[in-house]
Structures are given as structure tokens and as C-alpha cells.
Design goal:
Blueprint lengths: L26 H5 L7 E4 L18 E8 L2 E8 L2 E7 L4 E3 L2
Length: about 100
């Protein structure tokens, strides 16, 4: 049988929730807002599949370029190449 190479392959430990999460899906993560040029961390919430970036970008930091619908366009550098990702706010965290 051919091996599956889906969107979430090889992410067993990367996309794992903690043993005792504080709350499953707090509404405050969905309604948080960001301004242009804000620095944000990309932290994927595995329980929400919609608006997830590719797992290779988990843990990266980028700059918010614009808002598009409910999601945000985040610019990051992947090696030497600049990339734009469309990510919903549940998977973003403001940099302190």
C-alpha cells in the first residue's frame, strides 16, 4: 500500500495538545485582533483545522501584512524566500 503524505503527515509530536489544556477552544483566541506590522508567532492549534498553516511554519515568527476576511496575511522568511501565509487568528499569538 502506498504511504500517505497528507497535509499533517509527520506531525505526531508537533501538533499534539497538552495533557491538561486550560480550555478546549477559548473564544478569546478566535476574536483576537492584530494590526498591520504586528509581530506574531505562528502556533498551530491542532483542534481547529480551518485556517491552519502548513506544519513546517509552526513556531515561526512573522509580520501581519493585512486582514483578509476572518484571516490574516502573515509575511515570513522561509530560508531566503519571502512567503505570505493566510492564517486564522486561532493559530496566531502576539509576540511579547
Amino acid at each position: 500500500m502506498k504511504r500517505s503524505k497528507g497535509f499533517r503527515s509527520k506531525t505526531r509530536y508537533k501538533l499534539k495538545k497538552s495533557i491538561r489544556p486550560v480550555r478546549a477552544n477559548p473564544i478569546t483566541k478566535r476574536i483576537q485582533t492584530f494590526d498591520e506590522n504586528d509581530l506574531v508567532h505562528i502556533i498551530i492549534d491542532p483542534s481547529i483545522q480551518k485556517g491552519q498553516p502548513h506544519p513546517r511554519f509552526h513556531g515561526k515568527t512573522g509580520k501581519v501584512a493585512e486582514k483578509r476576511g476572518r484571516a490574516y496575511i502573515v509575511e515570513i522568511n522561509d530560508g531566503n524566500k519571502a512567503k505570505k501565509l493566510i492564517i486564522r487568528p486561532e493559530h496566531l499569538k502576539m509576540q511579547e
